Amino acid sequence: CLQMFLTVFRSNSDQNLTEVPITPETLCRDVVEFCKQPGEGGCYLAEAWRSSERMVGEKERMMEVLSWGQHRVEVRYRLRQLPAPAGSRAAGLVVSRTPAENTAKASANPEVPCVPGAGGPTPGLPERLRDLAAWQQQRISSQQQLLASKEQQLRCLEVREQQELSEQELRLLRENAHNQEAKLRRVRALRGQVEHKRLSNGKLGEEVQQMSQLLQQKQRELLLAASRVEQLSQQLEALRSSRPES
């Protein structure tokens, strides 16, 4: 399982920090619970970049939150106490991921303006707005890169699944061809046995026919011999009858 570590600062100082292990399933609330001290009250995770800061939603996946690209090293994550301190509102912008979320937060809590100094001119506001616009554009680019990566992974999975199906079909075809070849060999063997028996029976039939012809010939010779004996017997009897008595 892919794992990395997120550095969470417990104050505006960079000395007090906690290294939190992060996996693709880690949510923001898991990070907050990991960093909280025993008995500590409500806290939230703040994402700070340059002069802008936002509250990370409890159900946001940290792997997606960390998709900052080349600006990743400029982002700081700090554990804040609820309610958000007034100093953070005066120092920078409290923003959400989308303009709709900004409007919803402003309506729900009028005391926390989306843009500091809404009641009058604020020094450095154009620069902060430019930073905010650059930040939002960077987040949009990061989300687009993440989406493209997930689409690529999906395409790879589809290609792999298609390859596995093709390999399975090829394996089944090979098994079927092997079985058909084995059946064909058995049929050829049986056909050879039948042909051998037929030839053997044919030779036996020829021998029987020859013996039958020989027997018929002997019978004819026997009949001729019997007929000759009969003729000779008659001639002998005739000679005896014609001889005078002495």
Structural description of this entry:
- The chain contains 5 helices and 6 strands; from the N terminus they run ββαββαβαβαα.
- Among the domains are: 4-81, Phosphatidylinositol 3-kinase Catalytic Subunit, Chain A, domain 1 (Ubiquitin-like (UB roll), Roll); 129-210.
- The protein is rod-shaped.
- A hairpin with a 7-residue loop joins strand 1 (4-9) and strand 2.
- The protein has a 6-stranded mixed beta sheet.
- The protein has 246 residues and is of the alpha/beta class.
- The longest helix has 118 residues, at 125-242.
- This is Ras association domain-containing protein.
- It comes from Tetraodon nigroviridis.
- Residues 4-81 form the Ras association domain.
- Its main location: nucleus.
- It is found in: Nucleus.
> Tell me about the biggest sheet?
6 strands, mixed
Order of helices and strands: EEHEEHEHEHH
Strand content: 5-15%
Sheet with most strands: strand arrangement:
2-1-5-3-4-6
What would you call the shape?
A: rod-shaped
Low-confidence region ranges? 84-122
Helix content: 55-70%
| Structural class by sheet pairing and helices | alpha/beta
Rg measurement, Å: 54 Å
CA-to-CA gap between the ends? 145 Å
**Count of separate DSSP helical elements:** 5
Please tally the β strands and state the result: 6
Give the overall pLDDT as a whole number: 76
